Amino acid sequence: MTAPAVEWDSMRKTRFERLSRVATISRHTTAMGIDLDTIHTKSLEAKANPRKREILVLHRDDSDPLHRMLNAIEPQTYVRPHRHHTPPKAEVFVLLSGSMGFVPFLNDGTPDEENFIWLHPTKGSLIADCREDVWHTLLALETNTVVFEAKAGPFDPATDKEFAPWAPPDDSPDAQHYLRSLEHAFRKRFGA
User: Fold this and answer.
1) Distance from the first to the final alpha carbon of the chain
2) Where are the alpha helices (DSSP H) in the chain?
3) Is pLDDT above 70 for 4?
4) Structural domains in the chain plus CATH codes
5) How many CB atoms lie within 10 A of CB 150?
């Protein structure tokens, strides 16, 4: 068994430990500031990742009652529509850089265009707050898109997300076509 990869940030005296191919975790013990260098680093890691995503976990572990993270997503990454159903959990996304589309759905899989939220620093909103049990996905509309995300814990991988049965799985050949159709509908709605 090999030791986890650790990135050391001497300026902040913080360790980032690699959790998976798409996530690192901060091992700060008291407090940690998020600066533009950290956001930029997460963007670079998302670009280098085949899934075009990278997360920096800020909470201690899966049992923490409040999960906080940076979520870097690049254009053409497919976040399969899902909801946090068992138990129901709300989620909030705060734009830190780039531009993102928040796309909710009706229960039958129809995009809920009336409730689309464009996260953009000057032309849209800065925060998207999603109620519990709402089907949704995220679209990176520009490169270097990073959001701060928070939701209730604890995390149980067996129940955290319920994936939409009407949306293609991540590894499906239909996933990119579906993603493009959602992005087209989103851009049409906002003229983006």
Assistant:
1) 48
2) 36-48, 175-190
3) no
4) 6-190 (2.60.120.10)
5) 16
